[in-house]
Amino acid sequence: MFSNRTPDGRNNICGVKVAKLRKNLKISQRELADRLQLIELDIDKNAVQRIESGQRFVTDIELISLAKVFSVSIEELLNRD
Questions:
Q1: What domains can be seen in the chain, in order of their start residue?
Q2: What's the pLDDT at 23?
Q3: Where are the alpha helices (DSSP H) in the chain?
Q4: Can you tell me the distance from the alpha carbon of 15 to that of 60, in angstroms, rounded to the nearest whole number?
Q5: What count of other Cβ atoms lies within 10 Å of the Cβ of residue 36?
Q6: Spatial contact of 63 and 14, defined as CB atoms under 8 Å apart
Q7: Cα gap 55→12, rounded to integer Å
Q8: Per-residue pLDDT tens over the stretch 21-68
Q9: What is the pLDDT of residue 10?
Q10: pTM greater than the 0.70 cutoff
Q11: Distance separating alpha carbons of residues 76 and 61, to the nearest angstrom
């Protein structure tokens, strides 16, 4: 049977990278949500927390916005290094 989760049970691939990039910028989850809202993505701090923890799926629109805020490629957000 098909599973839409990562081998470790996460609902997304990019959450670990999002947390790492956010911490490198030394910004809070709330500030990341604020930056995403500035580029017209309706998201709050709780959604950022759930993305980072792997509890939430990430849409393609959110992925594009995250890449824009962090100034990285979508591929980099999906890279599991």
A1: 15-78 (1.10.260.40)
A2: 98
A3: 15-25, 29-38, 45-53, 60-70, 74-78
A4: 13
A5: 20
A6: yes
A7: 8
A8: 999 999 999 999 999 999 999 999 999 999 999 999 999 999 999 999
A9: 94
A10: yes
A11: 16
Asked if residues 19 and 49 have their Cβ atoms less than 8 Å apart, the reply is no
Predicted confidence at residue 36, as pLDDT, reads 98
- Supply 18's token pair: 């999002």
Alpha-carbon Rg of the chain, whole angstroms?
Answer: 12
Q: What per-residue confidence (pLDDT) applies to 4?
A: 85
| Encoded tokens for 48 | 């950022």
d(CA 9, CA 73): 24
DSSP annotation of 3: -
Query: How many residues in total does the chain contain?
Result: 81
Contacts 24+ apart (CB under 8 A), 27-32: 32/69
Task: Inform me whether the pLDDT recorded for 17 exceeds 80.
Answer: yes
The span from the CA of 24 to the CA of 61, in Å, is 23
